[in-house]
Amino acid sequence: MTAIVEQIIGHTAVLTMNNPPANTWTADSLALLKQKVTELNANKEIYALVLTGEGEKFFSAGADLKLFADGDKGNAATMAKHFGEAFEALSGFRGVSIAAINGYAMGGGLEVALACDIRISEAQAVMALPEATVGLLPCAGGTQNLTALVGEGWAKRMILCGERVDADKALSIGLIEEVVDKGAALDAAMALAEKVANQSPSSVTVCKQLIQSGRAMPRTQALPLERELFVGLFDTEDQAEGVNAFLEKRKANWKNR
Ligand SMILES: C/C=C/C(=O)SCCNC(=O)CCNC(=O)[C@H](O)C(C)(C)COP(=O)(O)OP(=O)(O)OC[C@H]1O[C@@H](n2cnc3c(N)ncnc32)[C@H](O)[C@@H]1OP(=O)(O)O
């Protein structure tokens, strides 16, 4: 059994978490995610990555709690390292990553969705960071990424009070961007990935860098960087192709260079 199943459809890679019964994370599945994202990042034909869970019930229930039952600190450090490396690789993916949340997204299962650029959830899904409920804490980016998305109030309700949110609530607090019917998350994510494929991949990479690096930068630094990278795009073939395709009233033929 492969813990992460990969499928390439056009310019999109679909990664399916497949670790029954709850698509939980282990050191091996996290290492595999990192490896796959690193390979996809090097593949210039891939513009979008869609992440989903196998089955109808779970996107992912987070870390396999059996791994933490014996209180082994070394094992905790290993898991924390694997979480960090895998999810940082995911957030550093140069294209657009979309979480298609098809069921429970709990703990590290929500944190992997938070490491994606965009989250689409099915109506029946439930999201939580319940690590404190089991004596742990969200060490896979959750305290930072959830707070950045929903603000301190809801982040504290979810992390400190263990509150679960359904898809409608998640939409209303900005945790996800779209709610779809049960069974429709993957199709909705693929439709969005198709829109990504119409964009210049060179522009997308640089825009994503600007949005992400801007979080930790003063405006006085971020705005000059935006102008500098705008000019830098004129070193790419995609820049000339995009403008000329518009003027010639044809579809652009992107090269990702
Ligand atoms: C840095 C990151 C840290 C973390 O991620 S810590 C982990 C955070 N996650 C959680 O705390 C979620 C734990 N799971 C649950 O609370 C529940 O599940 C749900 C609410 C998601 C669903 O509840 P229900 O519908 O009653 O299903 P079920 O019988 O609990 O789960 C089906 C099978 O899946 C196993 N399972 C679920 N989550 C985990 C997990 N995180 N680690 C290990 N096993 C898990 C169960 O034990 C059970 O298995 P069996 O059928 O053999 O009894």
β content, as a range? 15-25%
- Spell out the helices and strands N to C: EEHEEHEEHEEHEHEHHHH
> Sheet bearing the most strands, described?
6 strands, mixed
CATH fold node name of the largest domain: 2-enoyl-CoA Hydratase, Chain A, domain 1
Describe what you observe in this structure:
Belongs to the enoyl-CoA hydratase/isomerase family. It comes from Shewanella insulae. InterPro entries: ClpP/crotonase-like_dom_sf (IPR029045), Enoyl-CoA_hyd/isom_CS (IPR018376), Enoyl-CoA_hydra/iso (IPR001753), Enoyl-CoA_hydra_C (IPR014748). Keywords: Lyase. This protein has nine helices and ten strands. It has helices at residues 27-42, 73-91, 108-114, 142-160, 167-172, 185-197, 201-214, 219-232, 237-247; strands at residues 4-9, 12-17, 48-53, 58-60, 96-101, 104-106, 118-122, 126-128, 165-166, 178-180. It has a six-stranded mixed sheet, sandwiched between helices. Strands 4-6-8-9 form a four-stranded mixed sheet. It is of the alpha/beta class. 40% of the residues are buried. The chain folds into two domains: 4-197, 2-enoyl-CoA Hydratase, Chain A, domain 1 (Alpha-Beta Complex); 201-248, Lyase 2-enoyl-coa Hydratase, Chain  A, domain 2 (Orthogonal Bundle), CATH 1.10.12. The site of ligand A1D88 has 21 residues, from β6.
